[in-house]
Amino acid sequence: MSQYIDIESLNQQISIEGQFLDSLLSNQNKVIVGQQQMMNRLLIGLLSKGHILLEGLPGLAKTLAIKTLASSINGSFSRIQFTPDLLPADILGTQIYNPADHQFSIRKGPIFANFILADEINRAPAKVQSALLEAMQERQVTIGRETFTLEEPFLVLATQNPIEQEGTYPLPEAQVDRFMMKVLIQYPSVSEEREILRKNLNDEIQQKISPVIQPSDILKARASVKKVYMDERIEKYILDIVFASRNPEKYQLKELKNLINYGASPRATIFLAQAAKALAFINKRGFVIPDDIQQVAKDVLRHRIGLTYEAEAESISGEDVINTILSNVQVP
Fold first, then answer.
1. Can you give the pLDDT at residue 166?
2. Is residue 199 within 8 Å of 205, Cβ to Cβ?
3. Cα torsion for 169, 172, 177, 178, to the nearest 10°?
4. Residue-range domain boundaries for the chain
5. 3-state secondary structure of 39
6. Residue 237 has what pLDDT?
7. What's the confidence (pLDDT) of residue 115?
């Protein structure tokens, strides 16, 4: 009974602490039409200190989405266009020699911002991608002998074009695993595209977005997300999903054994829990339910499960594998 009272009071507390999300989402909807899932996933990443890998065709408001989010939070924004000739110094910054005083000074690169759009990240070579990796993982940048801590909140939104693969460098599995979620962006519906058309004709898309919250509010919200209650049965549900991707035969999923080359990493377990807590917070709920796990599972797992040649030959996708796991793992 006491636990019920605690959860009830936590529920009310989270509901109050999450009220700022209404004004944040309302502010973004002035500019962004549709793409609710993308905006939702950006918020989950922001509240969980996770980074997002977006895959979608050009023109689907990826740049506009993160730029609008940065403006709404009064945070700084940098857009980095990844190209084959890009150097690590172009992202991180470099040392500049000043002949007047015979000393080197640090010129910081575009990575020093709250929100980073890494556009077409797979067009840059491995050396550049590894430079970005330190910033993402350690939240710091090393230039010469100096190390600089990046200002929080810090969110990297990396994009990939799923169609044009000429002149690209596939991201190493170790780097892909650092992204909390891989989100697939779809075309808008007819009604949404009509609204996009009208807003563009009336220059409404170009309107200036005023900040409705401050970066400090996001840091407070992160502390609130950590308070969201997760029952042991939910923890077991997460573990069962992840372990079913590694040892499917132990979960009566023998048909998947020859389709999975490697299963989800321990980061999948951590990110599933963090993303579910953030989603519960966004829904102003003080506890995680199985539906939270199911909603974020595909985004957290789709880039962490490697398929065999047999799966590819049978045109079986990672989504199919994840759907089979979710359909068969017992829900608490």
1. 59
2. yes
3. -70
4. 20-218, 228-328
5. helix
6. 95
7. 92
**What CATH class does 228-328 carry?**
mainly alpha
- Going by C-alpha positions, the residue among 315, 196, 278 that lies closest to residue 21 is 278
Farthest-apart Cα atoms in the chain, separation: 73
Tokens of 150: 């990046």
- Helix H or strand E encompassing 48: helix 36-48
Six-digit token string for 157: 């939104």
Beta strands in 210-329 (DSSP E): 260-262, 306-307
Are 64 and 32 contacting, i.e. CB atoms less than 8 angstroms apart? yes
Strands 306-307 and 155-160: unpaired
Write down the pLDDT at residue 254. Answer: 87
pTM: 0.86
What pLDDT shows up at residue 326?
A: 92
Tokens of 236: 């077991």
User: Which runs of E-coded beta strand occur in the chain?
Assistant: 52-55, 77-81, 93-98, 103-108, 115-119, 140-143, 146-149, 155-160, 181-184, 260-262, 306-307
The pLDDT value given to residue 311: 85
Query: What is the mean pLDDT of each successive set of 10 residues along the chain, which is 332 residues long?
Result: 62 84 82 80 92 82 83 89 87 83 83 90 80 84 84 89 63 80 85 80 68 89 91 94 92 88 91 95 92 94 89 86 91 86
Distance CA 263, CA 244 (A): 8
Q: Which of 140, 143, 72, 76 is nearest to 113 (CA)?
A: 76
> What span, in angstroms and rounded, lies between the C-alpha atoms of 28 and 73?
10
Distance CA 301, CA 160 (A): 17
- The span from the CA of 279 to the CA of 54, in Å, is 18
DSSP secondary structure of 184-239: E--PPPHHHHHHHHHHHHTT-TTPPPPPSS-HHHHHHHHHHHHHSB--HHHHHHHH
Strands 52-55 and 181-184, bridge-based pairing? parallel
Please, what is the angle between helix 232-246 and helix 318-328, to 10°? 130
Q: Which two tokens stand for residue 301?
A: 């797992």
Q: For the domain bounded by 20-218, which CATH number is listed?
A: 3.40.50.300
